[in-house]
Amino acid sequence: MTIQDNSSVNAFIPGQVQLDAHEANMVAMRDRLLGPAYRLMYQKPLHFVRGEGVWLYDASGRPFLDTYNNVVSLGHCHPDVVEAITKQVATLCTNTRYLHETILELADGLLSTVSSELSHMMLTCSGSEANDLAYRIAKVRTGGTGVIITETAYHGITDTVSQFSPTLGPAVNLGAHVRTVPAPAAYRSGPNVAERFQRDVEAAIADMMRHGIRPAMLIVDSIFTSDGILPEEPGFLKGAVDAIREAGGIFVADEVQPGFGRTGSHMWGFQRHNVIPDIVTLGKPMGNGQPIAGLLARHDIVEKFGNSARYFNTFAGNTVSCAAAVAVLKVIQRDQIQDNARDVGAYLLDKVDALRARHECLGHVRGAGLFVAADIVSDRVTQASDRARTAQIVNSMRENGVLISACGMDHNILKIRPPLIFSRDNVDLFVDVLDRAIEC
Ligand SMILES: Cc1ncc(COP(=O)(O)O)c(C=O)c1O
């Protein structure tokens, strides 16, 4: 039996909508074969059979505009990535215990996008593993265990990382060594977001110390996705980063969401804040769908860990995944993907913001590059969240062929995160469908 999942506004709940016989059969088979932990998106689940560029096609051939997918950030089935994977898988698929040029090309390419202080790359298969590895390194480096996160953070699913991923819900316990701080939401709590965030991190450090816990790391998604997407004002991280370092911990920038050019102005989200992290974790868009993730780190941060512990992760850094990631980096540079994210992102932000004049329920609208958030509220002055309206908008857009989702503590923030090849025409279509979804 499918467990009812009301934790997200964007989930299939059995019995709410009519499914055709084939869909109903697939849902029943998933329940039987996959068990109760899996969830489907949207009130009416989708069954895709093909993707191309910004489009996904369902079993009947109907196209859907994908305004949500940050994994295939160069678009579905990008020809360069497909070719790189195909060639490599037909030639050789081995692991990091053999010499191979591609992993070196990837490391060189990635490290050339960050400050030279970050001098090593290590690879994993997922963002969760990258954050898990970052924490292991942080513990060895600092001798501490304490972790500071924002209150609606998500960093992954391993046992260790789930203990600092509060969005997994109240049934997943936070570790006793974990402290949460309010998300730095300038638009909600007013100016001085930098000072406030620093003070909150300092208070978390003090509380840890009082409980005999030595700080190991402050880790944040540098665009604060699950906290509601918080790009403003660039630069607000600096004081908090200084505070964790003064307390003996390190700063980890989780770039799984904002990385690889999404914010438009920079390749990495932390660069908007003018800080150099001790570790940068990478994931989702890195292989445009191929499971490759990892981290970049300073030499002195990984030195003790690397000298004391062997690191081998069977699939991580295999030649095929590396070929995909090298292709992704080349396309980002060759096709000026970051510039597209900046220009089309600004156009998208303007057009979504312009809808506020027509729709009272559209609260604050904000964004950086092709990452735009829009609060759905029942009252603009108090900014009271309207979760039900958010669900209606997300599902109505899905019915009209456009995919988005929602995020934030109250699940009332539209999460607009298209592939980075999105065009102005795509924006026009998106905004038209959004406008109609809000109206109904
Ligand atoms: C900020 C952030 N960090 C880490 C992860 C975990 O990545 P993965 O699902 O590849 O394990 C996610 C996934 O959504 C994420 O959004």
The main β sheet shows up as: 7 strands, mixed
Q: What is the count of DSSP helices, taking H or I runs of 4+ residues?
A: 13
3D shape:
globular
Radius of gyration, taken over Cα atoms and rounded to an integer in Å: 21 Å
Sheet with most strands: strand arrangement: 4-10-9-8-7-5-6
Please give the share of residues in helix.
25-40%
Helix-and-strand structural type: alpha/beta
Q: How far is the N terminus from the C terminus?
A: 33 Å
Write down the secondary-structure element order: HEEEHHEHEHEHHEHEEEHHHEEEHEEEH
Explained architecture:
With 440 residues, the protein is α/β, with parallel strands linked by helices. Helices cover 36% and strands 17% of the residues. It has helices spanning 21-34, 79-89, 101-111, 127-142, 159-162, 186-189, 193-210, 238-246, 299-308, 319-334, 337-354, 387-399, 424-439; strands at 48-52, 55-58, 63-66, 118-124, 146-150, 178-181, 215-221, 250-254, 279-282, 293-298, 362-367, 372-379, 384-385, 402-403, 405-407, 413-416. Strand 15 and strand 16 (413-416) form a beta hairpin. Helix 2 packs antiparallel against helix 10 and helix 11 runs parallel beside helix 13 (424-439). It is globular and about 60 Å long. It starts with 20 loop residues before the first helix and ends with a helix.
